Every structure is written in structure tokens, then in C-alpha cells.
Amino acid sequence: MLAAGAAVTALALVAGATGGTVGFLIGAAQDDGSAATVADARPMGVAEVARSALPGVVTLEVADAGEESGGTGSGFVMRADGYIVTNNHVVAAGGDQGKIAVTFSDGTQVPARLVGKDASYDLAVVKVDRTGLSPVPFRTGATTVGDPVIAVGSPLGLDNTVTTGIVSALDRPVSPGGTQDQRSYINAIQTDAAINPGNSGGPLLDSAGRVVGVNTAIARVPGSSSRGSGNIGVGFAIPGDQARRTAEQLISKGKAEHPIIGAYVDQSYTGEGARLGGGDGQPAVSAGGPAAKAGLKEGDIIVQIDGRRVTSPDQLIVTIRARQVGETVRLLVRSGGQERTVAVTLAGATG
């Protein structure tokens, strides 16, 4: 895999579930339960987007098996037959045997079961025993910096909350999480729409009411306590295409597949690019993996991926994680003062 040791993050982040760990032209409900996806739709006003989306946006209350701790987050209906997308860190607040309750915008509350979760992408899918729900459709294709967006969710437990803003930036390498096992690697959408603890797992919508991202984290001022963190105009969302692919895998297999090159990066390296290096007994390059087949070795420095400059180990990781298994990427590699371009076909790994 392409993995990191103790990941270094440029921004201090907190995940957005209260009580949890740190960290449109709506398509009609489809009879076959498949996810609603809309490529082209007319722009609408904020009020119309809210009216259309709110029936498909939910609040999740999560408690551990002893109902002594847990948290609150948001989510949205992906399929009419009861599948709901949220963040991993929302459901993780209850542990593996936690109890999950889903509340719809009309106040109806029903129990839910966990279908699958993936810490690396910070995504999870839960299911309720209901049909005929109102899916919130995913947008297909890229979004653009400056596009208007609308966040819907339950910040601080205040359900049916709608905030607006724009896409402030794209391809932000964001790695929230407390430990390596629970760390997420997200090639995130940055937005100035107000996102607060509890918004986690809720949709970030475009002006046609389509999901362009799943709200997952907010920035906090370095040195400030995560306990009192709130919106400072810098929030992050998992891109919608990534969320859709991962959710579909969780539904069909119970786990998600991550694209990898079969190498580790050296987190102690502070120069240009990302240097390959193992640790704790791990080789820098896995035998027989894509990186090895491309001739990469320990000490090689990856300075570009598909023409995009590599600025840090985390940035390289999230860029690869945003691709698809089987896709080929071109790496500009520096070794011994010489540079070469190699093509690497991404393999897949779970866990």
C-alpha cells in the first residue's frame, strides 16, 4: 500500500460529530432502490433546494452498547430502500456494537443497523427498515471553485439546518483522525459554508440539489481546544464521486477497496516531494506490488503525480486514494539526482 506513519497535517482539524471523537432537481425515489444520480439539472434557489433535500437528510444518534457514551451526526438517503450515507467517525462513536437511531425531517425516528464502514475514507452506510424514501442524488462530474453550495445537517443537534457558501478550493489534502488506524485520507473539497460539530455525514449540495460532497471536518485555529471548536469559514467535504463509489462498495461487500501503489512514504522527510521509506520492519516497496513492478525502490522521491506537484506525503496519499483501482498514474521520480517518469497501475486493498 501507499501508507504513512504518523501523518503530518497542515491544518488542525476536528471531526464534526457532537460527543464523538475528534477529529435540486431531486430524482424521484427509484423503485429498484438504486442510488439516484443526476448529471444535468436546473439551478434552484436555496429555499427550493432545502425543500427538496430535507426529506432525504437525517440525524443519527449513536450510543455504545451500554448507552453510556456516543454522539450525534448527520446523514442522507442514498437509496429508496433504506440505505443512508454518513461518516465513519459518526458511527464509530458507538463502537462496534453501538445502537444507531435515525431521525427524519418529519420527526420520525427508527432504528438502523450498520452495513459497513471505512475509516480511511471516513465513510459509513447504515440501513433502516423502510422503503419509498427520498434519495438525495449525487452529482456526476467535477465541481468548480466558486460554485455555490448548500450544507444540510444537524450542527450541535439542531436538525434541519441549512447553510450556504461556495466551493473555496479543491484537492485539499486532509487527514483527520486520532490514530493511524482511524486516520482518514481525503482529497477534500474546501467550503466556507458554515459547518459545525454535528454536520458530519450530511450532504454538501450544489445549486441543483445534488450531492457534491459529504461534510466531514472543520479547521480550528492551531493551539485551540477541539472541545470548543466551531465554524471559522474553513470546512471540508469528501468529494461526491468518491463517496458514491465507496458507499456502493460498502453496500455490496461490507467493505471498501482502496487504490494503492504498494509502497510506504517516509514521514520524517521534509524536502520536496514524498520519499519512499519503510519502518517498523516494513519494506519501503512491497515485493510484487505496482511500485516494485515500475522499478521504484527505497529512497526514491516522488515529485509529481500526473503532472501535479507533490508537496507532502499526505498529499500524495490522498491523491492516490482519490483514484480508482486499475487506473494508471504517471509519477515523476527523482533518484540519485536523476529524474524519470514511470507509469504505475493502481492495485486494490481493503482494510
Automatic annotation (TrEMBL):
The record's keywords, sorted A to Z, are: Hydrolase, Protease
Q: Which GO terms describe its biological process?
A: proteolysis
GO MF entry, a single one: serine-type endopeptidase activity
- Indicate whether Chloroplast appears among the record's keywords: no
Q: Does the keyword Hydrolase apply?
A: yes
Q: Pfam families, from UniProt?
A: PDZ_6, Trypsin_2
Family of the protein in this entry: Belongs to the peptidase S1C family.
Instruction: State the name under which the record lists this protein.
Output: Peptidase S1 and S6 chymotrypsin/Hap
Where does this protein come from, organism-wise?
Answer: Luteipulveratus halotolerans
